[in-house]
Write a structure and sequence with these properties.
- With 223 residues, the chain is of the alpha/beta class.
- The protein has helices at residues 27-30, 35-38, 44-47, 50-62, 83-87, 140-146, 159-172, 189-204, 212-221, and strands at 2-4, 11-13, 18-23, 66-72, 98-99, 102-103, 125-129, 151-157, 176-185, 208-210.
- The strands form three sheets. It has a six-stranded parallel sheet with strand order 7-4-3-8-9-10, sandwiched between helices.
- Helix 4 packs parallel to helix 9.
- The chain is globular, with a radius of gyration of 17 Å.
- The termini are close together.
- The model has no long low-confidence stretch (mean pLDDT 97).
- Bound molecules: tricarbonodiimidic diamide.
- Tricarbonodiimidic diamide is lined by residues 24, 29, 39, 72, 132, 157-158, 161-162, 187.
Length: 223
């Protein structure tokens, strides 16, 4: 059992019953020319957390923990993309349109690949998800139950959209969830700050938050 310094109080986990869930660290969100930029966002804020996320990933792999990578993506015929999701707003490029990294948010396109620094290793789970949450229409819950997973450590992008949605879905399914605060980012720093605060409020109503250092230190000392 590991205990790590967290908000609003220490978080306890066993590596064998825990998974590191890395949300949507795909080129579509963190590199120019992808979905994130097409929505009018500055992607540099998201790129900034890649080195910290990599340190956490390497420490977690070193401890032998299960790693789950997710990608927000749609089938090439967009049959799993609600029309409203594609048509909403006035983006420079819509989901399915061809951009500099291939078709926007479409499975297996260049832009849909996870950034090289965090690329999945052999044996790690890769979940393609059509929604913002990692549990909607993916079978992830069943796969985690099968492996006896009860605790989830989250990082990735964006904090208040896919990360928070996934964490809330997980919390409702009974997982103890922790968000690694400096390994997650938003295009809107104030939304990230609000998300961290609302997760830990009311006695960890959604879960815990902790720094990458706290996670790495606890995981490394468990070896
Ligand atoms: N736009 C935005 O902030 N996020 C997304 O569309 N998806 C994820 O958060 N992955």
């Amino acid at each position: 059992m590991i205990e790590l310094a967290a908000q609003p109080f220490p978080f306890k986990l066993d590596v064998v019953n825990a998974a590191l869930v890395i949300i949507d660290m795909q080129r579509d969100f963190v590199e120019p020319g992808g979905f994130g930029e097409s929505l009018g966002n500055d992607v540099s804020l998201l790129q900034a957390v890649i080195p910290v996320a990599r340190e956490v990933l390497l420490a977690w792999r070193g401890a032998g923990g299960l790693v789950v990578h997710t990608r927000e993506s749609h089938l090439p015929d967009l049959s799993d993309c609600p029309p409203g999701k594609r048509l909403r707003g006035n983006p420079a490029l819509r989901i399915g349109d061809r951009g500099p990294m291939g078709r926007i948010l479409v499975r297996d396109e260049e832009g849909n690949q996870i950034v090289p620094e965090l690329a999945p290793a052999r044996g790690e789970m890769v979940i393609d998800k059509p929604g913002k949450g990692a549990f909607y229409a993916t079978g992830l819950h069943e796969m985690l139950i099968e492996r006896g997973i009860t605790h989830l450590l989250f990082m990735g992008v964006t904090t208040e959209v896919c990360v928070q949605t996934s964490m809330r879905e997980a919390n409702d399914r009974g997982y103890d969830c922790l968000l690694i605060e400096d390994a997650t980012a938003s295009y809107f720093p104030e939304f990230k700050a609000a998300t961290l605060a609302m997760i830990t409020a009311q006695g960890a109503i959604v879960g815990w938050t902790a720094t990458a250092d706290a996670v790495i230190e606890a995981v490394s000392s468990s070896l």
